[in-house]
Amino acid sequence: MKLGRSYKMCCLMAQVIAFLAIPNLQHVRAAEEQKVRQPGVAGAFYPADPQMLTSMMDEMLAKAVQPPVAGSILAVVAPHAGYQYSGPVAAYTYGALKGHKYARVVVIAPSHYEAFDFTSIYDGDAYATPLGTIPVDRTFARELAKMSPTMKLSERGHQPTAAGAEHAIEVQLPWLQHVLGQFTLVPIVMGDQSYENSRALGVALAKLIHGGDTLIVASSDLSHYHPYDDAVKIDHKTLNALQEWDYFSMSRNFQMRVWEACGGAPIVAAMIAAERMGANQARVLKYANSGDTSGDHARVVGYSADVFVKAAHAAAQEPPFSLSDADKKELLALARKSVENYVEMGHPYQPEPSKSEALNRELGAFVTLKIGGDLRGCIGYTSAVKPLYLTVRDTATLAAVRDPRFPPVTALELPRLHYEISVLSPLRRVLNIEQIKVGEDGLIMVNGNSEGLLLPQVPVEEKWNRQTFLEQTCRKAGMHKDCWKDDGTDIFKFTAVVFGEHKP
């Protein structure tokens, strides 16, 4: 009888224990069912051993000596090559974050191994590294994916494929864990690196992020496999535009492959978001390339460490670009010679390289042709794609023979042509229309595939006020006159050095 009672008590206790254990079992089962992106390049791009990895980062951080960055760091750029190559530069990015606290980190990366036409926001629960597992902020990720049809919750670009395991997000995570400690993650891979996709992501992030508890990391290397000196020249075009906040020209030149950055769209998206969140300084903390660590200068990859800061005072602007009288005379003569050579000989003019430092700078420019005060052609490059003297050669020729509004210039018209050249400054988005100075600023209006430009001298010649100037730029872009008020429209302003023949 006692045995029976004991047996019944044991069964009862077992049932109670089992009942009490159900939540724990469910917890274990839920953990097992979590979608965790496991390390794909540990042991290759960086050490798989946590102690070795930490020691390596500490050593690099100790060498990345720099003054503290004043202000709130809203976004950064860091390279994503193997630590032995890009780590000494990445250490400048992450060294600048020491002492800062962020509850959430958004990492934006390009896709190296998988092609898709959207921005992929990871649909899983976490990313793992040798230093531990970082939870994904799934609520933020879901809200972000709703902001634009160009963005989706997906594992595309995140999970390893037969071609390889994407490294551009993964290599940033140990640095972030080591410097920041605990945070939630929003991993994003951009399959389409168009300006429209960069803008959609940047604008959405700025709308969703409130306060200073979120950091944006753009993961990108710069130029690939050029000789050392060539790489330095190419990369500094990108870095100059970055410091000038000219992300529109950056995006264009990345797409045309004039400049190079495998994560060009992530950089542009981070700049757009940071600007709309109040950042007013862009700083390059460090530039180097793989030749500086490997010693091989034949084929190098460029790296930079950059921060976008909301500071008490905006960075002091450099003096406006100017040209000497000799520079202007040389460009006007080159424009005339280029048009006459093409119209009379039928092929482009091949000038001797200019000896002027200013004329070898890469700047946008327009050439305007007139006869008797009437427009005869006008074409230009808004972005800096070539040395200025070559830009003037090309745009003068195009204005004469390719402006769709006019027939090609004839040989009989050549003596009657008057040449005017407008050399453009870098572009900067208009944050407030009160910033637009009629007579000083030119405008570019962009909305999707629609784009229009008017030079600074146009509203003066037409006697327009600021609102009419805005409306007419919309018309030039083929949009309705109030397009400048649309949320989807970006207004960029620029100044210009304008000069012509026989007038100051």
What does the model show?
- With 504 residues, this protein is α+β, with helices and mostly antiparallel strands.
- It has three domains: 36-310, Protocatechuate 4,5-dioxygenase, Chain B (3-Layer(aba) Sandwich); 325-424, Glycoprotein, Type 4 Pilin; 428-500, 2-Layer Sandwich (Dna Ligase, domain 1), CATH 3.30.1490.
- It has 14 helices and 19 strands.
- Strands 2, 3, 4, 7, 8, 9, 10, 11 and 12 form a nine-stranded mixed β-sheet that branches.
- A hairpin with a 2-residue loop joins strand 5 (126-129) and strand 6 (132-135).
- Helix 2 crosses helix 3, helix 6 (195-208) runs parallel beside helix 9 (264-276) and helix 8 (247-255) runs antiparallel to helix 9 (264-276).
- It is globular, with a radius of gyration of 28 Å.
- It starts with a helix and ends with a strand.
